[in-house]
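Hi L., both proteins are below.
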Amino acid sequence: MMLALFVAPVAAGLLCAAWLLLARRESWLDHPGHRSAHSEPTPSGGGVGIVLALALSMLVAIQGGMVWPSIYGLLLGLALLLMFTGLLDDRYSLPAMLRLGVYGLACSALVAALAFGSERSFLGEGLSPMLVLALPVSVIGLLWLVNLYNFMDGIDGLAAIQAFLVAMSAALLALLAGDATLALFCALLALCQLGFLYWNWPPARLFMGDAGSVPLGFMLGGLALIGASRGTLPLACWLVLLAAFITDASWTLLARWWRGARLTEAHREHAYQRLSRHWESHLAVDFLVIAVNALWLFPLAWTILHWPEFQLFLVILAYLPLLLGMAKLRRLK
C-alpha cells in the first residue's frame, strides 16, 4: 500500500507534465476573458492527470493485495466518464443540457448502486417512503456538489488544495473510524492533488479544467455517500469538511437568483474571487482556505465523529462564521 501512496502524487505530476506538453503543442489553451482571473493563455485539462493517476495508484494497490469493493470501481469508472465529458467540454464547449444529462446519469447510477446494491444503504432498508424521498434528494445533492466544485475552480490552486484538504481529512477520520478501504481511497485522491499542484500552484502553468473539477466534485460527494453507507463517516462530517466551498457557491447562487441575474451566465462574484481581487493575490486566498480547514472545519468534523449526538449543532456551528463572512465580503467589488 505504501507503493500506491507514493505512486499517486508522482504519477499525477508526470501525467500532468505530459498533458501540459500536449496541450501546448495542440494549443489547447484557456484564453483570458473579462471574467477570467488569469492574464495569459494557459493550458487546461490537467484534471486528466489527476484522475488517471488515481486509477493507476488503485491498480498498484491491487497488486499489493488490496481488494477494492465494487462501489469504488463504479465511483472511479463514473469519474472517468465525467473526466472525458469535461475534456470534450473544455475543447468543444458541449451544450449545457448534454453536460447536465451526463452528470445526472453518473449521480443517479452511484446513488442507485448504494441504495440497491450490496453495500448497506444510508438511505434505509427496503422501498420505504423515506427511501423514495431520499433517492432524489441524494441525486440532487450530489449533482449540486458536481456543479459547485466546477464553479469554485476559478483561481490558481484553490480547487486542488480544497480537494487535498477534504480528502486527506476524510482519510484520517476514516482511519480513526476503522474503515481502512475508505481511508486508502481518500488518501490516494488527496495525494494525486499534490502532483497536479506542482503545476497549478500560483502562478499556475496548468489548469485542471472541467476534466478535473467535475470528477473531483463527484468523487468527494460520492465518497461522502459511501462513508455514510458503510456507517463509518456520518454525512455531517463531510458537510463540515466541504463547508467552505458549499457556503461560497450556494450563497453566491442564491444572491444572484434573488436579484434576478442569469444563473447560467459566467461571473466573478464568488467570495474567493472578490478576495483574490481585493488582496491582489491567489496565494493569499489559498492560505486562508488552508487555515479555515485546518483550524476550524477539521476539528469540528473530528468532534462529530466522536460525539455524533451533537452533529446538528456542530454543522450549524461550522457554517455560521462562514455565512457571516459571505455577508461581509459582498461589499467587496
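That was the first. Here is the second:
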Amino acid sequence: MLGTSADLQGDVLLRGGLSVAQVVEGYGDVCQAITEHAAETNATVSVDEYHTLNLCLDVATARAVTAFSGARDRRTATQETERLGVLAHEMRNLLSTALLAYQALKSGAVGVDGSTGAVLGRSLRGLRDIIDRSLTEVRLAATLRNPERVELGQFIEEMEVAAALDAKAKGLALNVPTVEPGLAVHVDRPLLASAVGNLVQNAIKFTPAGGRVSLMGHRNATQILIDVEDQCGGLQDGHAETMFRPFDRKGANTSGLGLGLKISHDAVTANGGEIRVRNLPGKGCVFSIALPPIE
C-alpha cells in the first residue's frame, strides 16, 4: 500500500512543479513529524519500530523518486515530440507554398517581380529563419562556445546587410545609426548574430508596412548595448513578462514557432549578457541586449 501510494505521489509532485530534491525532503519531513508527535505524546518507539519506519520511508522515497523521474522523462519526451511536430508542420507549410509559387513562375504565366515572386521569397526566408534557429538551439544544447573579440560597428553593419532585404520586402525603413569606433565585446559570434537576427526579424514581422525598424549599437557607463526598436504599436499588459517563453505568440501575426525570443534570450545569456524589453505605449517597443565591454 505504501509503495503504491508513493508511486502516485511521485507523479502528483511532478505535476505540482516540485523538484526531485523536494520529493526526497518531503519524506524526510514525514519521518520528523512522526518522531516529534511521538515525543509530544510520550509514546514509546522501540528500536525495531524506528528501524521499520525508516525502512518503509526509504522504500517510499525510492519509489516516489522513481515515479517522479519516469513521469518527468515521459513529459519531456512528449514535449519534444510536440515541438518537433510543430517544427515539421511549419517547414512543410513553407515548403509547399514555395513549391506552388515556383511552379507558377516556371509556367511563365507570372513574373518573378510580382506577388508570386514575393510569396516565394517569404517562404524561403521563413525556411531560412527556422533552420537558423534550429542550428542555434543545437549550439546552445551542445554548449558549443567559441568566444572572440567582435567589433561592434562591423557586427552591426553585417546585421544591417542581412536585414535590409527583409525590411525592403515588407515595405519598411531600416534605420541603422553609425556606431562609435572602438566598441567591442568578447562573445560567441554565431550566438550573438542569432540573438540579434531574431530580434530584428521579430521587429520586421510586427511592424506594419510603411513603418520603421531601428538597429542601434552604443555604450552606456558600464555596458555595450544593442537595441532593436520596432513600431508594433506597443505591448499588451503583461506581455513583456511572458514574451521570452517558448511558443509565446501573442499578437495578430501568429506565424512561426514562437521560439525566436526564447532563443535570443538563451543566446545572450550564454554570452554573459542580459536582454530586456521596454514598452513604448501606442508606438512600439525596444529590445536591448546588454553585454560587458572589452577595451
